[in-house]
Amino acid sequence: MKIINVENLEKSFDGLGVLKGISFTLNEGEVLSIIGPSGSGKSTLLRCLTQLEKVDGGKIEVCGKTMVETKENGTVNYSDKQTLQEVRLNLGLVFQNFNLFPHFSVLRNITEAQMHVLKRSKKEAEELGRALLKKMGLEEKEKAYPNQLSGGQQQRVSIARALALNPTVLCFDEPTSALDPELTGEILKVIKDLAKEKMTMVVVTHEMAFARDISDRVIFMDDGVIAEEGKPEDLFNNPQNPRTQRFLNRYE
């Protein structure tokens, strides 16, 4: 079943094209990794999907609902407020820099959106929050504050917070880029465990070995376009595009 459908997505900043006709699909239970050099448009693509940026052209469908489409006259039309909220709830986003509320405890960071967005009771939100903290190996940290946690622990809290809203798709924007190398492994393990559970995911990453191991498909972006797309064994072992070849040679 197709969960995300993107057609001819365009996005510019100050007249500079960052996304230039991006098209791809994501199926239920699939892990799609997006790799490429800095500035290639990877994070902007995720921000457009999750409505943190407005697109300049193209079409995005999520779980069968049209989020945005471009009319024949070039007008970009976003759907009504209720549809956009439904689409937003289908897509969870884990940021590079955690984005936790520093003045909230770990548990409250996970329960706040549940109560305000999904209207769950405090008891229900806390029960799910504690279950997710246990899943992340952080059951003893519920009363701690973000500044009392390591970077890896903070990122696990942010993953738990995203999961608490029951998204259909979980999007990761360079989830290990703000971490020391020794903490990277714990986050990659969490994502691998979610993949085993058949969580549908889009992962923007610079961890090539991880992308190769975890992905059903890999997209290589360069200068705002998809230069190459394929199964990880094909893209990493036998890339067809010279630009992909040069990029991957740096990681061997």
In short:
This protein is of the alpha/beta class and 252 residues long.
Shape: globular
**What's the number of extended β-strand segments?**
11
The quaternary structure here is single chain
How much of the polypeptide forms β-strand, as a percent range? Answer: 25-35%
**Cα end-to-end separation:** 35 Å
Regions with little confidence, pLDDT below 50 for 5+ residues? none
> How many separate helices?
9
Describe the structure.
The protein is built from nine helices and eleven strands. A six-stranded mixed sheet has the order 7-8-9-3-10-11, with helices on both faces. The protein is an alpha/beta fold and 252 residues long. 40% of the residues are buried.
Keywords:
five-stranded antiparallel sheet, alpha/beta, six-stranded mixed sheet
Secondary structure layout:
Elements: E1 2-13, E2 16-27, E3 31-35, H1 42-49, E4 57-62, E5 65-70, E6 76-78, H2 81-90, E7 91-94, H3 106-117, H4 122-135, H5 151-163, E8 169-173, H6 181-196, E9 200-204, H7 208-214, E10 217-222, E11 225-230, H8 232-237, H9 242-249
Parallel strand pairs: 3-9, 3-10, 7-8, 8-9
Antiparallel strand pairs: 1-2, 1-4, 4-5, 5-6, 10-11
